[in-house]
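Catalogue entry: protein

Sequence with per-residue tokens
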Amino acid sequence: MSQPSDGASTKSASQGIVEQHAKLLASLPFSDTTDFDDATRGLLATRTPNAITDASGTVVWDNDTYDFLNGDAPDTVNPSLWRQSRLNAIQGLFEVVPGIYQVRGFDLSNVTFIEGDTGVLVLDPLVTEETAAAALALYRETRGDRQVTGVLYTHPHVDHFGGVRGVVSQEDVDSGRVPIIAPEEFTEHAASENVYAGTAMARRSAYMFGAALARGPQGAVGTGLAQTVATGNITLIAPTLSVTATGQEETVDGVRMVFQMAPGTEAPAEFLVYFPEHKALCAAEDATHTLHNLLTLRGALVRDAHAWSQYLTETIDLFGNDVEVVFASHHWPTWGNERVVRFISEQRDLYAYLHDQTLRLINKGWTGIEIAEELALPPALENAWHARGYYGSVSHDIKAIYQRYMGWYDGNPAHLWQHPPTEQGKRYVELGGGADAVVDKARASFEVGDFRWVAEILSHVVFAEPDHAAARELLADTFEQLGYGAENGVWRNIYLSGATELRQGKFGTPTVSASADVISALTPDMLFDAIAIQVDGPRAWDEALTIDVVLTDTDERYRLRLANGVLTYSSATQRGSADVTLTTTVRALPALVGGLSVDALQDAGIRLEGDESVLGRLLATLDPGDKDFSIVTP
């Protein structure tokens, strides 16, 4: 993992930001060190140095780059976020309870090892093959060379399955020796999220996780959920056992597990899992030490805050009498029945309060932006460290709830048909007396610390006149100050990434989630959809063609039809012959996504009959996504 440039953040914190931090220090219970006690409890071993490389020797993860996180917060970092980042940077192998162990600080997520009669079960094997293998090696160095006898994915986000080939082989899974357990519809959601809008999500993730930022007090300090994302090889092996109902029990290698389904919470498919013999609950990502996202800023389906809170009530009802420890796929555990129940209850109340109060104000005519600006949490939640907005935030979670119920339109006709950003920018600049005049007014607002307004008006200037150097420079300085002030780790990364892009240019997408393994998990229908969304409609208006796809291993046949700028498909019996027929297997079918050249398909073992030029005609209509599209400039 190459070290990001350190030339983007060189300014000091403004006096207003310094004063903001001082007020926060006085208002929150910084003397409470319980989280530090919990985050270091049970430490058995560390990895020193903790730089992990891929097969070529490239560093894909280096937790040591966060060694600067010690002492009091500098002026350029929100002190609450600094505290959270110090906790998240603690790394090593930890004993949760005898028989359950976690490796933390090796990636964006934690991996958990549950010891069985003969081997060990792996729960949520990190983002990449390399980091998962390193975590397993640390476990084995301390606990012995146990073979992996099972794998669990709690939900279909890449940080919970991407490292699977670092802990188990395809052969072990295919043989039936190692089951892979996941919630119902896991594969469909894992593939669709990382492929359909995967290019745009990955590009925005580069902002969200601070890919271009140097580690340090003026750059990346963490995301609140963890530090950042490893940049190694993302893998996926499809589940072999689906959990479909709350109360379903499975025993693997002598480890008894009771599952609770929680779809539509932090992920469309998700389960929590209780280990009765250990009185230990894995809360997946539904109860962590932060207010979570209801709509992640990289983009995703809006999550259901109401369902989220109800499932946590169900968690207490199901396991609250017996549970003695709760751990999750991020952060650190909580021990003791009373503390565990209080923690889950406060997490439940957090999502319920935001949901119910947002709807109350929606029904009084408030818009999402208005609610987000005014709604505050009750003191008991405001002062609970685990309810602070380090990854999600009260502000953007409220807007997500508004979006879920009301959509993008706020009811004001003036907002029904607005100009796009560049055209808006030109008109605002003209209204303000020209770009130079607007920049002068923005500079005055900057001096008094009204950074939100400066960002608003200078963004219009940059979209109207992208080469206006003074506007770009001042907007970069403004984003920097907003980043310094942010308690939310993702907000900080996004603001500082915007400053970096304005100063140094676009930095692309370092991690591509639509890996070969993820694409191979697409069903035929999903794969055809993935091709269809790349069709450039206007370019294909006058094109008409048909392709039959015959799958010999499943005895399925599909007719693909391109007409009117749309690629559709059907598995029903069709009249007549297609222009060209492709005969292949489900496993070889993903070769279509890699390109439609005749040679490439034949090399993948796909047999062609008919007019092969049809494939080139279809390929000529495709318009793949741009992994380096602009964000803060037109």
Remarks:
- The CA atoms of residues 550 and 622 lie 22 Å apart.
- Confidence is low (pLDDT under 50) at residues 1-8.
- The two ends are 29 Å apart (CA to CA).
- The longest helix spans residues 337-362.
